[in-house]
Amino acid sequence: MRSLPAVSASAYVPIWAVVGVDPVSWLLSRGVMGSDEFTVVHMDSLKWPDRPHWRYDMTRVGDDEYGVWLWAGPDTIAQHGSDPPRRRGIGFVTLIPPNEWWLAMFFADHPVYDTYVNVGTPCTWSENTISQIDLDLDVVRYHNGSCAVIDEDEFEDRKTRLGYPPRLVEQASDAAARALRLLETDAEPFRNVSADWLAIALEKR
């Protein structure tokens, strides 16, 4: 059995590059591409308590220890609230983590953001549909590497006007703080893992 070259933490190399195979073949051999039962996954995002927010379809790329990874291409048709459906225009992979009060989007070509973390209730699955209540707060990483929590004014307004329960307010605030720490420290899956899944999605599209 041939030995593998050493890989330092400071010089990250994807495992499929180390073993000398293409990424899709490696993931398929590892059995982590996810179930083929639902290739297309529908996102149903709501505003508190049950007002339609965003609705669109994504393609399941795979899963790992961080959650399920989905792809939405630039031609994805999305509907915002009661507005007419429209083309999104930007491709991205979305990470749906288990039991977290956020989901994360990693963009292929967004003009402003590298990463966008949407704070909301933990995603729930019903067959091929994901549901989440969006809780206004978002955490972003810009292309220059700086990170910030945004839409705090919207959160402050709606938590009072719409009567968010105290536990909801606490969980949303804590989730935004956790996500900001992950982004600022360049922790996984926000460092290399997300870039790998984005590369796989772009290759498979």
Provide a descriptive summary of the structure in words.
The N terminus is likely disordered. The protein is globular, with a radius of gyration of 18 Å. A hairpin with a 5-residue loop joins strand 6 and strand 7. The chain has a 7-stranded mixed β-barrel. It has 5 helices and 11 strands. It is α+β, with helices and mostly antiparallel strands.
List the helices and strands and how they pair.
Elements: H1 15-19, H2 23-30, E1 40-47, E2 51-64, E3 67-72, E4 77-80, E5 86-87, E6 92-96, E7 102-107, E8 113-120, E9 124-126, E10 129-142, E11 147-150, H3 152-161, H4 166-184, H5 193-204
Rg, alpha carbons: 18 Å
How much of the polypeptide forms β-strand, as a percent range? Answer: 35-45%
pLDDT average, as an integer?
86
Elements, N to C (H/E) = HHEEEEEEEEEEEHHH
Pairing-aware structural class of the strands and helices?
alpha+beta
Number of DSSP E strands:
11
Question: Unreliable segments (pLDDT under 50, ≥5 consecutive)?
Answer: 1-19, 21-37
